[in-house]
Design goal:
Helix content: 40-55%
Order of helices and strands: HEHEHEHEHEH
Shape: globular
Low-confidence stretches: 1-5
Strand order of the largest sheet: 2-1-3-4-5
Distance between the termini: 26 Å
Number of strands: 5
Strand content: 5-15%
Radius of gyration: 14 Å
Largest sheet: 5 strands, parallel
Amino acid sequence: MTEQRGSITILVADDDPDDRMLMRDALEENRLANPLQFVKDGEELMDYLHRRGQYIDPNRSPLPGLILLDLNMPRKDGREALKEIDADPDLRRIPVVVLTTSAAEEDIERSYELGANSYITKPVTFSALVEMTRALGRYWIDIVALPVTSHAS
């Protein structure tokens, strides 16, 4: 069972290419060997989760076991995507960690109302990001028992 938990795909939804690169580097720094996928906005996130368009091949776009979601993205923001994920009985089982620059109380409350499992304000330094991803990995990969995802649209 530990092997399965350790092999979950992490899907990062973030429109900032620098933030995506830093997240990849921080996860590598922690030697998290989980498959890592990236999407640039909420529209791509929903396409990925429903296996539409460029994400149709489940071998290239495996269903994630964990989503790291930025709130402020173009086209469809994280709040809209979170609402759609929570409304879908198959997708709502996937844990969503909101990872955003906003520390606004209304964003925190609204994210939890929409189904977020955790809310983290993005660290401002790379060393803090490395520590945060280490804690994320320990909790979401090593400790928590996650449901097996088998959704196929």
